């Protein structure tokens, strides 16, 4: 492995097309071997990843890690019996053994009527790139300097910052090829970079921790290191001297980075796996009103520099722009070909997940959302896993701020917010324009009109 600060490593950043060509050739050879072993259908995924990450704390370097990984996965079908095997070894005898193992597994598995490749006519034909390849030529020394500057800016910005959980810089790139026996071959390449800091305000039993981070496909899109450190300090210090609030029912405003989790619970409930296993509170909900009639979520797989932009899904099926929720009505489920067949439906080109979701805003920025709420709880942190996907019951530890007259009054913690997701979805009153850009689920803050908040008894 070449060190991150050598010319050999820097040169490797520019050879992605050559590497993709090599992986394409490898995929085709593996498909030929699968056919030679009698497989009626086959698919191959090949990927390569490399990265650098550094962590510092209290002005000292804690870790520097360089990674370089490779993965090759082969899946074969003998009729509707399936077998899979994987390797990271490119030696010919290892590749042969991987194909043989996949075939042996398939010959000994049970027939599954839903097994098989996605239909050939659904394969993507218009293959594009979405400005997702921006290698960051940065060596370990420079990454360390950035992390130190981020932490220092935060520690120096507020005298109440007594300690640090550290700052980190990360950069990574990945290339991949998916090919199957329908003749489909798809290439993808992407980069991702991050810079973050977590700081501790106060001391002893009065300590409070918070942080901030930036993530982007291109390093030029990251927030400045000093700005991240200062924001981490401001967030940590703002949580000092928290109070409790009386148990009751209040409006709850989920800050944008927390609001994503509500969309995540929806996705989990309408995913094919949960539905065909009948482990979802949203069984048979397609075509029904789940949200207010103004509420909408669109899937946008072709966004330039989108975190999950792609012309095809994990099975080679052509992606498409389409609504998930429109007029408050759930338009469809999240399906790959296997779950679609189990449900008697057609794939929605979501094998491997969704490709960029946009939650439509109906309100203004963050300050406007606070003003519109008037009085209630702003949630800036959620803890625990208290969500029952079968019933929709929701109960999670939380921290944030109490709001009066549309203004933040004081921090609160040691509370629990609870409800039922179906009722919470119906009770959404506003979605802000304050979109958090750090995810493939793009949403502003979300105001739920009424939830149970457990605080002081």
Short structural summary:
By secondary structure, the protein is of the alpha+beta class. Helix content is 25%, strand content 35%.
Question: Could you characterize the architecture of this molecule?
Answer:
The protein has 457 residues and is of the alpha+beta class. It folds into two domains: 7-236, 2-Layer Sandwich (PmbA/TldD fold), CATH 3.30.2290; 248-454, no CATH class. The chain is built from ten helices and 17 strands. It has helices spanning 7-12, 16-36, 92-108, 140-157, 225-238, 256-269, 272-276, 337-343, 366-373, 421-426; strands spanning 41-57, 60-78, 81-87, 161-180, 185-201, 208-216, 248-254, 297-299, 322-326, 329-330, 357-359, 376-383, 393-404, 407-420, 428-431, 441-442, 446-454. A six-stranded antiparallel β-sheet has the order 3-2-1-4-5-6. Strand 9 and strand 10 form a beta hairpin. Helix 4 (140-157) runs parallel beside helix 5. The longest helix is centred in the N-terminal third of the chain and has 21 residues, at 16-36. The model is unreliable at 1-13 (pLDDT under 50).
Could you tell me the radius of gyration in angstroms?
25 Å
Which structural class should the secondary elements be placed in?
A: alpha+beta
Q: Figure out the total of helices.
A: 10
User: What is the CATH domain class of the largest domain?
Assistant: Alpha Beta
CATH superfamily label of the largest domain = PmbA/TldD superfamily
Q: Give the amount of beta strand, in percent.
A: 25-35%
- Shape annotation: globular
CATH topology of the largest domain: PmbA/TldD fold
Task: State the CATH architecture of the largest domain.
Answer: 2-Layer Sandwich
Q: SSE order in H/E notation? A: HHEEEHHEEEHEHHEEEHEHEEEHEEE
Q: pLDDT average, as an integer?
A: 95
Largest sheet: 6 strands, antiparallel
Q: Considering DSSP H and I runs of 4 or more, what fraction of the residues is helical?
A: 25-40%
Can you tell me the residue ranges where pLDDT is under 50 for at least 5 consecutive residues? 1-13
- Give the tally of β-strands: 17
Quote the distance from N terminus to C terminus. 59 Å
Number of domains: 2
